[in-house]
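REQUEST FORM: STRUCTURE PREDICTION
Request ID: SP-0412
Submitted by: Lab K.M.
Chain count: 1
Length (residues): 628
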Amino acid sequence: MISKIRKYQDSWLTKAILALTALSFMSLFGITGYVNSANKNRAVIKVDNLEILQDEMNIKLNNSIRKAKNMFGDSIEVTEEIRKNILLGLIKDNLNNMIILREANKENVSISDELIQKIISSQPEFMDATGRFSPDLLRRQLSYFDMTEREYISDLKQNIINRHIVSSPVEKIIYPRFMDKYFAQIENQEKVFSYITINPSELKVDRKISDEEIEQYYQDFAPQFEETEKRDVSFIELKTNELSKNIVPSAEDISDFYKENENQYIVPEKRYVLQMVLDSKENADKALAELQKGSDFYKVASEIANQDKETTTLGNITSDSLLPELGEDTFSAKLNEPVSPISSEFGWHILKVTKITPKKVTPLEAVKKDIIEAIRQERAYEEALNIISEIEDKIGAGDTLESIAKDYNVRINKVVSLKEDGSYKSLSNKRYKDTVSSGDFVETAFSYNVGETSQVIETENGFILASVTDIEDAHIKPLDDVKPEIVKIWTENEKSAIAQEIINDVVADLDNGESLNNIASRFKLAIKTTQPLKRGKEFAKLNSAQLTEAYQTPLGEYRLLSSAGTTTIVTPVNIINSSADINQKQLDSINAKMQKALESDLSNELVNDYSKDMDVRVKYRLMGFDDL
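STATUS: Completed
RESULT:
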């Protein structure tokens, strides 16, 4: 199941975006590194009793893209390919985490809240200048990474479990040091390659196709020359926003909406707050006494609480930004008077309010128009359902699309020669080009006979009714119409046959010991020789797997490498071993690289092994991957 994620590309952009889903400052655990919810929010990943729903994956995807834009700027173009690569990476990460979490549950491995609290409070990134844990620094860091405390704690627990279940067992397997020198020599080794490329598209066919061959191809490839069924369809659209114009909310409706959504119209009171946190009641009382004498808050915080100005300043905040035990006293305190020491799990707090911004309430009259529009939008769908019911009754009574359009004063649109793939010949209103190509519209168009009016098709803007006006049945195109296509197919086949014949002859001659140079000269093929290249250096447009195969070829032998119809025959002609001494730094670098590769491979194998006893399901189609 995990290996099914085969399209995931390790581009630098995709890697960077996926890396943003974790907090880079969680160094203690080595963490550096088109979804449509439709009407049903179904599970897209399941591992036994654990599951992730469509909406959850959609949120994760959108968060990753948003973080990417925050990092690279809005100028970044998140193409459909990048979007799918990000989604595949998220699927892989979440699937791995679910398998690991399920294995942890089976082994009764759990992480206590006490351990999490201890870990968080010991993180250097969350400590102030005195080395004490600062909740404010924690909040600032999480805010910077666009993460809630709940998400942070969840990720932290997951990574501890991952380390216990996967990383720790794998790290015990050490890559042997005696291999370093061998791999260093291989890495520094250079090879010279000679190669020829046989591309059928570049070959010439020195004869023309005969009439008999044209006729034979026409018969053999008949399905390829089929003209699919086409349909002319008339349709109307009733827009929800237009229906909402007929809705007139009462004064009571407007008042009720205002009360139910009053938080939208109220800006809560804000206070500019200073805070010092002390380790004992004694020091807190001492600090309070100094403040009551008129001492400067920042000075007392520095001398007794060992806090700098930045740590002491909470800034302009609302009540819910504070710990529950601090909020009530702080927001009832008088201006510039210190609040008596309050105890919490973090110590003893003394706070002072230096500025108060009163609560601001927007009156009903000021937002009445917006409320009326909001109520209309809320009720528009209900109104639409009533009209749908009316229309269905009309259809049942035999009303035509034309009469329904007249009743509701809407225009009839037409699409001509619509095919099942969503393409068409013409459309009366280009605004509907996406609509008529959609799966729902096409399915409806091909489900009814001529003259029948369809059931309603819901869209983002309202709903559509359609009626088929003409059907052109599927048929084989006349021979004269497809002759150019037949000639093209025949030519491509001829070129492929010629190319294969050349390849067979070249391979036979190479197997008989003839040099690639002589063979290339005889067949009038261009032969190229590379400069000395280190392992992995690209040439001849070979992909990474083909390059690996080429570099593994012994001197004097050859490799036949084919991709997208083009065949490259490669042979190493010289090997150049580096004469430079390999220093300890290079050996250490090689060892670290090989150790990392070994751990990665073993981790994947371990997770795969865990998953064998689990019910693992990934619904790729629900996430927009029709080919997985």
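NOTES: Residues 1-39 have pLDDT under 50 and may be disordered.
Reviewed by: T.R.
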